[in-house]
Amino acid sequence: MKTHFRNVYFLSLFAAGIFTNTSNAVFAQCSSTTVLTVPSTYLSNELVGNGNFNAIIFGNLHATGGDSEGRLVVAGDFTAPGSYSVGSGGGRDATPNTDNFIVNGIFTNANNWGMTGNFVYNEASVNTQFPTHPAGTGVNKGPGNTDLLAYANLKTYYKDLSVTLSNLTPNGIVTYSPYNFVTIDLTGTSTSLNVFSVTLPLDKPFGININVPANSSVLINVTNKNVFVDGGAINGGQAEKTLFNFPSATDISLKSFALQGQLLAPLATLSGDGGNINGQAVIGGNVTQKNGFEFHNYCSSFPMPTVTPLPVTLTAFTAAKEGSQALLNWETTLEANSDRFEIQHSANAKEWNLIGTVASKGESKSLVRYQFVHSNPVNGQNYYRLKMIDMDGTYAFSRVQDVVINTPSVVTAYPNPVVSDLTIETNDLSKVKGIYLINAAGQKIAMSISSDKIDMSKVRAGIYILEVNQTNGAVSTTKIVKQ
């Protein structure tokens, strides 16, 4: 499936090695070293080709439809009960005779389909169909070809890269429209790199408008842990100069959506249902492709940003529920000139508040464990991050961790008995979804609340049950006597 998004952006040819054959097809192996290029230290000397791939999947790939127009690496198993193709389509076919399709696990394929370049595999299922190649463009190599990439170490590299990118200070403005279809406007003025921190809506469709100077790069750090996109579009910017970074996401679902840019999600699984990714992609978990979801072969020209080294090496950071509190634990294995950790909290992953400070070890080359207890989290979703601050004031942020605290709602209503105004006190009035009076006959009457008061002056005298429903589903009741 080819969508109209394919022709939105112009691809600079300096980012690709260009080749032609006698049929005038254009072959492109991205040649520039960019942010998602696999460093040579993680490549085997036996690999034919460079470190640029259209998609790198560290888990398994299950495809009932779709393709990868550029080079594809699957560290786990590859399963295709339907049609698939690698290295062709979109006007920028992968280079012939390089290792363009690598499966480090078990290859299972039910149909005969073609590809450009070499197919390298470790194992194959019984009676599986192998890819075919136009004459002179590639061969199948296997079984037993493994570890052309150092997968475990490479995945750690991309995890660290994702955290490093998420620590870059935003210099652009993010504006959310308050309507049913959310428009996210990203406005930047930098002629080099525009950095945005974005929280995608979970319950509404959305579109993204990118407004930046021509030829500038765009980094979009997405804070969500779970991402579900159904429709929508991205306008503006340049796909090859845009990177979507998901440092905390564990589950990404893209349905009928064209993502215009590179994608870095080293912790996430990906479900692609229609639509495409117009750029290089690195996915840490399993991937499913269906209804023609495609990886399009855009050569990135997003540069590797210059960053300040982290003041500490953070090896673990977790948040867990302990009763009605949140328990934060983290570990470091190296600290150099480190001063302190600031613990920040948010109820929406957008606005952050300082809730505590923990002094760091300062100088250490061994394992150090830290702990912090948040004694009064909000009822519902809580987000936490560490701000790691050096002696000279430089700092970096950790990944975001979240925990759900479902505290039983405590409702107090007074005066009781009541004549006119009834005052309501609860854990968080902003989380109240509805308030009802239930009479002796079981009839439920919706009540409106002004500030923290209910007008009871027109309610008949008698005994009622006051029911308070909260947005997280909690329901609290208390008996009220109306005089």
TrEMBL record:
Domain Choice-of-anchor A stretches: 49-296
Signal peptide residue numbers: 1-28
A Pfam family hit: Por_Secre_tail
The Secretion system C-terminal sorting domain, residue ranges: 414-480
Superkingdom per UniProt: Bacteria
Keywords: Signal
InterPro entries reported for this sequence: Choice_anch_A (IPR026588), Secre_tail (IPR026444)
Protein name from the UniProt record: Por secretion system C-terminal sorting domain-containing protein/choice-of-anchor A domain-containing protein
Species, as recorded: Dyadobacter koreensis
